[in-house]
Amino acid sequence: MQTDPATGPLDGLVAALDIGGTKIAGALVDGEGRIRVRSQRPTPARDDGETVMGAVGDVLAELADSPLWEAAGAVGIGSAGPVDAYRGTVSPVNVPGWRDFPLVERVHKATGGRPVTLVGDGVAMTAAEHWLGAARGHDNALCLVVSTGVGGGLVLGGRVHPGPTGNAGHIGHMVVDMDGEPCACGGRGCVERIASGPHIARRALENGWRPGPDGDASAAAVAAAARAGDPVAVASFERAAQALAAGIAATATLVEIDIAVVGGGVAGAGEVLFAPLRRALTTYATLDFVRNLTVVPALTGTDAGLLGAAAAAVA
Amino acid sequence: MQTDPATGPLDGLVAALDIGGTKIAGALVDGEGRIRVRSQRPTPARDDGETVMGAVGDVLAELADSPLWEAAGAVGIGSAGPVDAYRGTVSPVNVPGWRDFPLVERVHKATGGRPVTLVGDGVAMTAAEHWLGAARGHDNALCLVVSTGVGGGLVLGGRVHPGPTGNAGHIGHMVVDMDGEPCACGGRGCVERIASGPHIARRALENGWRPGPDGDASAAAVAAAARAGDPVAVASFERAAQALAAGIAATATLVEIDIAVVGGGVAGAGEVLFAPLRRALTTYATLDFVRNLTVVPALTGTDAGLLGAAAAAVA
C-alpha cells in the first residue's frame, strides 16, 4: 500500500478499482480527485475466476487497512469489457476465467455492503477526463482510448452517458468501412480493426516497413519511424487517423459533440497521429453542427481508470 | 381548416407545425395525441423568405380561428433541416429563401407570445414514434426516415435526445464507407449516399435496371421490380439495407439502443428492404449489448411530423 502525501478534507471519499488484463489497481480518491491511498496487484489473467477475484480481494483488503477506509462511502469499478452494468457482471476479453462474473455483488460483500457502481473502462476514462481532464466544462464530448483496442465513452448533456449496460461510447466497434476486413468482434470494418496499435503495426509490416536492430515492431516503433519520415509508417498512421476521424465524425453527427479527447498508448505518437486526424476530420465532419469539433489529447494519464471509477461512484 | 371529429378533454393541447419543402402543415393536438384541428398550405419553396413565412402565418391564422385555439398553451415546430434549436433558426436545404431564418422568434410573435420549441424533422418523427408508435415503451431507440434523404432521431434514457442544436440522430450523414463516394453534404460514404430513395433508383439504373412503360424510375418502382424478382433491383435494395444496417449497428454500439424504427417512403418497400436489413444487422451488430437489437416499421405515418412537433412542445 502506498499512501500519497495529499492531505485535506475527506468529503466525497470513495474507493476505486481499475481492472484490466495486466493489473488490478485500487485507490481511495477524495472529492477533489486526489488519490490518497493506492494498492495494486498483477491480474492473474490465465487463472480461474476465483483466483482473479482473490487478487481483487487483496487490493481491497490493503485499502481497508488504511485509516481513511471508513470514510469511503461507495465503490466505483472501471473494468475491461464487455461489462453488463445492468446485471453487475463482467466478461473481460483478456480474462477468460471471468465470464458473466458477478463482480458487483462480490465487491459489495467484500466491502461491508457499500454501494458499488460498475462501468466499462472506456466510460471510466471518459468520466475522468470530464471531471479533471480535457473534457472538463464540455457538456457533449467523446473520449477515446486508442491502445491494444479502441474504447471510448460519451458525455451528453453535461453527464457521462454509460448506457443501460455501461458500454456506450464503444467507438472501436463502430463500422466505418462496411465492405472492410473482418474484425475480431465478428463484424467487419470496425474502427478498431484499422486504428488500434497492433493493426497500425501489422499494416506497416505488410506494406514493407521493418523494425530496427532492437526488433521492436510495436505501434510506438512505427510512430518513431513515421517521425523520422518513413513513408510506409506515415501511411499506416494516416490510415488509422482516417478511421478514427470517420468514427468521431459519425459520433458527432449522431449525438452532437463539440470535443473528442484521445488517450491511450497510440495517442502517445503525438502529431504523427493528431495531424492526419485533424485533416481527415475536415473530410468527414462537414455539417454545420459538427464542423467546429476539436480533437485534443487526454490529460489524466495512467490514473484515468481509477479517477474515472471514482467519478462513476459519486455520479 | 379541417376540424376532426375527435372530442374529449383539451388537457395538454398544443399547436404543432410540420415544415417541409413541399407543404407546411399545422394542427392543434391534444394530450392524448389526437389531432383536433388541421390546416395546410403548399410551401412556396422557391420564393423569398418572407413569402414562406407568410404561408406559415396563414396556417397559424387558420388554426387561431378555431374555438380550441385559446386552450393551446405552447407551439412545437418540426422542420426540415438543418435547424439550430439553440439559436431558434432554420435553413432547410430545399427552401433556399430561409437561411438562418429566425423561425422561433417569428412564430412566438405570431402566436401571441406562446412558448415555441423547435426540433429537426427526424427528431420530430422520433418523438411521435416514442409517444404513440413503434418506439413506445422503449427507453433507448433510434428512429429513421428513409426517403429523399435519410434522417433520424434518438431516444436515450427514456427521453428524446435532440442534442444542443436539435440535429442529433442524423444517421443519414454517418460515415459507413470511409473510402466511398462523395456525398452532397461534403463528406463521403454517408448512409444517405447509399440508402436514400434517389440513390436506390440511381444504382439500379446504373446497373441496367430499366423502368416499365409508365417511365416510373423511382425507388418505389425499383421496389416493385425487386418484388417481381428483378436481380438488379433486389441488389440495389440489398446495398441500401447494408448501409442502413451498418449505421444502425454503429449507433447501437455507440449509445446502446434496443430498437430501430424505420419510416419514410422507402420503408414502404416492406420486406424488400426489411429482410436484407435484418440479415445485414447480424453481420454488423455482434457485441453482446447490441445483439438483441430489433428493426421494425414505423407506425405514425404521414402525421408523424405534426404529432412529433406536438410531443416536442410538451417535453
From TrEMBL, chains A, B:
Entry-linked SUPFAM superfamilies: Actin-like ATPase domain (SSF53067)
Family annotation (PROSITE patterns): ROK
Alphabetical list of InterPro entries matching this protein: ATPase_NBD (IPR043129), ROK (IPR000600), ROK_cs (IPR049874)
Superkingdom in the source lineage: Bacteria
Family: Belongs to the ROK (NagC/XylR) family.
Name the record gives this protein: ROK family protein
Organism: Streptomyces flavochromogenes
